[in-house]
Design goal:
The protein is an all-alpha fold. It is built from two helices and no strands. It has helices spanning 2-17, 22-71. The chain starts with a helix and ends in an 11-residue tail after the last helix.
């Protein structure tokens, strides 16, 4: 991502500082902008998907704990030591 941002900013700088490179700089600028937008969208998609899986894992852990508590037999053994 850092390389994409760097190329994006360099292309923008060339568009502003060297007007003769505007056609090429514009193409590079738009390509990098597209990659950057795509990367950011994909990043947030992955982040949200991972958070969703963590919620599912937490729910499963809670269900297992409740099941273990409900099926655990109480141990009330008394030992008579003489």
């Amino acid at each position: 991502m850092m390389i994409t941002i760097a190329v994006f900013l360099v292309a923008l700088a060339f568009m502003v500082l060297v007007p003769s490179t505007i056609p090429v700089s514009t193409i590079i600028y738009l390509a990098m902008l597209g990659l950057l937008i795509g990367y950011i969208r994909y990043y947030f998609f992955l982040k949200n998907t991972v958070q969703h899986w963590y919620r599912i894992a937490d729910d499963l852990h809670e269900r297992v704990e409740m099941f273990d508590r409900s099926t655990a037999a109480p141990t009330h053994e008394t030992h008579n030591e003489a």
